[in-house]
Design a protein that fits this description.
Radius of gyration: 18 Å
Mean pLDDT: 95
Number of helices: 7
Number of strands: 19
Low-confidence stretches: none
Largest sheet: 12 strands, mixed
CATH architecture of the largest domain: Alpha-Beta Complex
CATH class of the largest domain: Alpha Beta
CATH topology of the largest domain: Fumarylacetoacetate hydrolase, domain 2
Length: 292
């Protein structure tokens, strides 16, 4: 067991990646070249993560304005997303609450960090927001019992599962509409599980768009909790340190509002989860950052 709640960020200075630990009002960090591995390297067990924290406790302070923030896990081996995992969102989408989770994939090229632009693709104007709790796997495993599953969780973060809706519904498989480059905001911190409620139950989760609350729910409303999801997913595949499980969104998405609400260039979208913090991104048009 971890002795206390720890908060880690991943960042770059120039071309060098580093890891930092929250310390007071700031962070202390070192390059991964000095630490001997990136963050997933230390997620494999609690002892390794505690050792990383002890090293970083006396590391130099970093100034956030001098570094580039990255998603807490930069290159997850798997990003496994859960659809229709809140009763209200399932019903607003026209579905009965599922008896088995809907699982689809995202890919690392779709990830952006806190403060990075969330990219509205040139191929579509129908970019939607989705506030979600992200679970980061620690100790890997297969055929994990639900009663033991939370011991395989290293920590939690925030996720905005930006969805290109017309591409999502072009087929029965959602992956295409969920994997556009730059549409999945993730971060800013990985918050370790100790001193958080088991499975992050009972936490307020919401989306704020340009100062207006669009989604407002509680993680208690998830149909499949974190332990159940870890167990179910591990029936099919080995979960590895640093894998990310994105646990679904509550009701209030833009596509199902009257009138509909789509993310526009210049919008500021924030995901908030109680005790975890907030994740904020400004929307930009793809052409403006690619020069096409």
């Amino acid at each position: 067991m971890l002795e206390a709640l720890l908060r880690f960020i991943t960042y770059t200075v120039g071309a060098e990646e580093g890891i930092a630990l929250k310390s007071g009002e700031g962070y202390r960090g070192l390059p991964v070249s000095e630490l001997g591995g990136d963050l997933p390297h230390f997620l494999r067990d609690d002892a390794a993560l505690e050792e990383l924290a002890k090293i970083l406790e006396t590391a130099p302070e970093i100034v956030l304005s001098d570094v580039t923030l990255l998603p807490p896990v930069v290159r997850p081996g798997k990003i496994l997303c859960i659809g229709l995992n809140y009763v209200d969102h399932s019903r607003e989408s026209g579905f009965e609450p599922p008896s088995y989770p809907a699982v689809f994939a995202r890919f690392a090229n779709s990830l952006v960090a806190h403060g990075d632009p969330l990219v509205r693709p040139d191929a579509s104007d129908l970019l939607d927001y989705e506030c979600e709790l992200a679970v980061v796997v620690g100790k890997g495993g297969r055929h994990i019992r639900e009663s033991e599953a939370l011991g395989h969780v290293a920590g939690y973060s925030l996720f905005n599962d930006g969805s290109v809706r017309d591409f999502q519904i072009r087929s029965d498989q959602w992956t295409m509409g969920k994997s556009f480059d730059g549409t999945g905001a993730f971060g800013p911190e990985l918050v370790t599980r100790d001193e958080l409620p088991d499975g992050c139950r009972g936490l307020r989760i919401r989306t704020v768009l340009n100062g207006e609350t669009m989604q407002d729910a509680n993680t208690d409303d998830m149909i499949f909790g974190v332990a159940r999801l870890v167990s179910i997913l591990s029936e099919a595949m080995t979960l590895d340190p640093g894998d990310v499980i994105v646990t679904g969104t509550p009701g209030g998405v833009g596509a199902l509002r009257q009138p509909q609400v789509w993310l526009e260039p210049g919008d500021e979208c924030t995901v908030e989860i109680e005790q975890l913090g907030s994740l904020t991104n400004t929307v930009v048009q793809e052409a403006l950052i690619t020069g096409r």
